Amino acid sequence: MHRGCSAGGPTAVLTIGKLGISPDQLEYYERQVAQGMEDYFSGRGEAPGRWVGGGCGGIGLSGQVDRDGFMRAMAGCDPSTGLPLRAPHARTKVAAFDLTFSAPKSVSVLFAVADEETSASLLEAHERAVEAAFAYVEREACFTRRGHNGERRVRGDGFVAAAYRHRLSRAGDPQLHTHVVAANMTRADGRWTTLEAHGLYEHKSAAGAVYRAVLRAEVRERLPWVWWREVSRGLFEIEGVPDAVVREFSRRRIEIEQRAFELTGVPASKLSRERLQGIALATREAKEYGVDGARWQQEARARAAEHCLGGREIERLRASQSRAAGASEAEIVRAAATRLSGPEGLTEQHNTFARRHALAEVAGEFKQGATASQVERAAGSYLAHGSVVPLGRIDHESRFTTRDLLACERAIIEGAERRSTERTGMLDSRLPELVLADAPEPLNAEQLEAVRALATDGRGISVLQALAGTGKTRVLAALARLYQSAGYRVLGVAPTGRAARELGDTAGLEAVTIQRLLLELEESQHLSRQTAVLFDEGGTAPTRPSAELLKRAERAGAKVIVAGDGGQLPSVAAGGWFAVIGDRLGGPELRQVMRQRDAAEREALEALHDGDPAPYVERTREQGALAVHEREVDAIAAILSDWNRARQAHGLSHAVMIARDNATRTILNDRARELLVREDVLARDGVTIADQEYRVGDRVIARRNDRYRDVDNGTLATVAEIDRQTGAMTVITDPGQRRLLDAAYVAEHLEHAYALTGHGAHGATVEWAGILGRPSEFTREWAYTALSRARGHTRVYVVGEATAKQRERETYAPPEPERTTDEALTIMVRSMRRREAEALAIEAVDPAELTVPRRTAPASVPLAELVEGGAEQSSSQRSPWRSPTESSSATFGFDWALAERDRGIER
After folding, report:
1. Which of 247, 338, 559, 813 sits most deeply, having the most CB atoms within 10 A of its CB?
2. 549 with 522: CB under 8 angstroms?
3. pLDDT in tens, 165-187
4. SS3 444
5. What is the reported pLDDT for 795?
């Protein structure tokens, strides 16, 4: 789900920042937040901070926060005596966590310019919503770790926190928000220890959803004329507050966009994130202190009136007829079950979910708001619905799945095991030597043995597991020749159009995507016992369509051979079945890598594939091929410089930059083209189509399958001709085929391809690859996929600075401490051990749940009696728990709270 705000305000309702332990950092934070020096909205100044949290009472903290008490508590000491509470040897670089709850921009604006009664009501509603959300976080996420290496997770007695309410952003715009600064400690079993911060990040989205739902309800209770409109899934603004006003009071963003247009002549939306960041730094002014509150409010009201929110408009709003809140709680639960339990619901992209995920989604169903208890009760009722299956505890929390996904997983696993004794598609063991003797590219011994095993095992479904660069597609091509020679009809299938085309071209057979083959089978049942289905890239294949295809193959008695690598990027949709049937059925493996010329690099990559990243990182550092850059701009400059030398040596099609997300990829593509234009590598004149310029010589990638234009999502090509009148473009694909793309396709589905995401680079082989990412982004599968593309040289550029989402906090909070090179590499290595691929839900389910229908619990079931669970939503309606770096071409099924933890915030 898109988590943006339509009018340009902050996109995150709850953000979490961390305070370092150094006295200088604590002093700075105390001045900037606790004293609220830049937040002087009225002549009376900001409200004093107050102590909150269940841990305060035990050390005598209550009421108003004083400076000395704040400094001591954040340092882990008794606020009265200054004596340490935490063990002095506790290993932590984090003093506290700042949970900042921000009101929707329309609330902040109306609070700033409305009459005193309306402003007071909005302020009180915000306070109640913060209290409810913080109570949720304290109940669900206050834990510490005990035992050897923190093996035991122990519930804490509560947070020691100071809450500070502010009313302006650091740029002086209305932004009602509250900092809840929680010391990095809690007491458990009578002893103080550091917090397990993982829980804070896990429950961030759910707590934000609780805040929003309670705020909506509290505002309507005090101001019955308010009606909420949904601006994107789960995000709401007050109806009647014009978008123009909201934008007017996003002053800092407007300033940056105006300056960007002056400098570039194009809208800010068309500029790279890096370019906008540079403009933001160049236009940043010193903070203004001692603002005259009365004059500020007078000016704010005048500005609002200019954009149709003056006194008359506010009076009309106040005189509006109140409207009923709409659906009942029971109706909301029923609607949630329909939406969240379907193929495009919670398990569209994840195999399992937790209660926090369901709660975050269900909270958004209460369009006009709800109490915290209503949200919790509705989430529990949904989890008790018959469409949801409990899986028990996985890691430290209960997990759930949906019954329809479970049925698909069960069909695949049980079908594969059932077909293992069929004696299907068994060829004579002498056939491989006879048929392949005159092959233009002879197979090596490992490949030949794999061909022989797969063609003679007699299984209905056979599995080939292969590391990157081991010649998997050549093995499938050999199998195609074998089965064709034996009179079989051979069909190729793959999850993506690009993989299907590569299989078809290499094996000389008809190959299509899974979805395409299913459509064809709907029209004409042509699978039979004399059919062999060669299923490539099984590791990235989604569960639901794969289950349907394998069911049809079993019904026809067709032979299926599935090849893939469970160590590379997993399916974008819910998946993971390939690795499971590989483990259960066994089968040949290809581990003799031929892509990398350096034997030591091949060994290090194999270790990375198997979960040990240390040899690869150590080797790459020793060779000077890995560097940590403090700033993203420095990393981008370095990778571009190296890429330019590599493309001069090897050609544009043999040098590629790989980034984790689309925003970074766009930056790299823009900068690469600027460099090529300056050096006259591309044609002198370009054609602009849909605000994107193309020139003859440009590297491009197609982003949508189109059988009529004969291109696939992921097709890489070079621009050969451009019709300046029509915008039509002729490209030469990397295999050498000419394709004509009309302007409509170019406008919607063509992009530059000097840089790719991990999914875009999957399956590619180049001479030089540069990999750019932040430490926590180098997960095991992504790192292996990206780092195994090049035959010759791979260079790694690690960005040490905070993400864009973290920098967004700087509009209302001081920046976080910088990360050292050693810290960055420690996080990177830890991330490389973390799997993105999820376990199948069926591996954790109670067998009784597969056959016994569950009753739907009544809406009145007490929260304490309900089990836990959670949710994810479809790509067009993404959930609040999705990663900020996720993009349309790379969506991953692992817990992003782990990525936040591995930015160095825990213990």
Report:
1. 559
2. no
3. 988 876 778 889 999 999 999 99
4. coil
5. 97
Encode pLDDT of 681-700 as tens digits: 999 888 999 888 999 999 99
CATH of 613-832, one of 3.40.50, 3.30.420, 2.40.230, 3.40.720: 3.40.50
Is 669 exposed, middle or buried, given 0-12, 13-18 or 19+ CB atoms closer than 10 A? buried
Q: Report residue 541 as tokens.
A: 């294949």
The amino acid that residue 622 corresponds to is E
Q: Give 189-247 pLDDT, tens digit per residue.
A: 999 999 998 999 999 999 999 999 999 999 999 999 999 999 888 889 999 998 888 88
Classify residue 103 by burial, with Cβ atoms within 10 Å: 0-12, 13-18, 19+: buried
Give φ, ψ of 213 to 5 degrees.
Answer: -65, -45
Q: Is 422-590's fold the same as 613-832's?
A: yes
Name the nearest CA neighbour of 353 among 401, 388, 407, 393.
401
The string of pLDDT tens digits covering residues 469-481 is: 999 999 999 999 9
Task: Please return the burial class of 255, using the count of CB atoms within 10 Å of its CB with bins 0-12, 13-18 and 19+.
Answer: middle
Q: What is the pLDDT of residues 367-422, one digit of tens each?
A: 999 999 999 999 999 999 999 999 988 888 999 999 999 999 999 999 999 999 99
Domain boundaries defined on the chain: 14-249+293-318, 252-291, 331-405+846-897, 422-590, 613-832
Q: Which residues pair with 180 in a beta bridge?
A: 99, 163
The CATH fold of domain 422-590: Rossmann fold (3.40.50)
Rounded to whole angstroms, how far apart are CA atoms 638 and 629? 9
Global pTM exceeds 0.85: no
The whole-angstrom separation of Cα 149 and Cα 245 is 52
Q: Rg of the Cα trace of the chain? A: 29
**Which of the 8 DSSP states describes residue 203?**
T
Q: What percent of the chain has pLDDT over 90?
A: 57
Sort strands 729-733 and 738-741 into parallel, antiparallel or unpaired: antiparallel
Distance CA 435, CA 610 (A): 35
Count Cα neighbours of 405 within 13 Å in the Cβ-side half-sphere: 33
Helices (H), 240-354: 243-248, 251-264, 273-282, 293-306, 311-318, 329-340
pLDDT at 447 over 70: yes
Average pLDDT taken over every residue of the chain: 84
Contact present, 591 and 446 (Cβ < 8 Å)? yes
Distance between CA atoms of 292 and 239, rounded to whole angstroms? 30
Tell how far CA 29 is from the center of its chain.
30
Q: 538-564, pLDDT tens digit by residue?
A: 999 999 999 999 999 999 999 999 999
On whether the CB atoms of residues 539 and 568 are closer than 8 A, the answer is yes
Does residue 887 carry a pLDDT above 50? no
Beta bridge partners of 752: 700
Residue in the block written with tokens 């600027």:
674
Tell me whether residue 571 is exposed, middle or buried, using C-beta atoms within 10 angstroms of its C-beta: 0 to 12, 13 to 18, 19 or more.
buried
40, pLDDT greater than 70: no
Answer yes or no: are the C-beta atoms of 844 and 392 closer than 8 Å: yes
CA distance 221 to 121: 9
- Give burial (CB, 10 Å; 0-12/13-18/19+) of 726: exposed
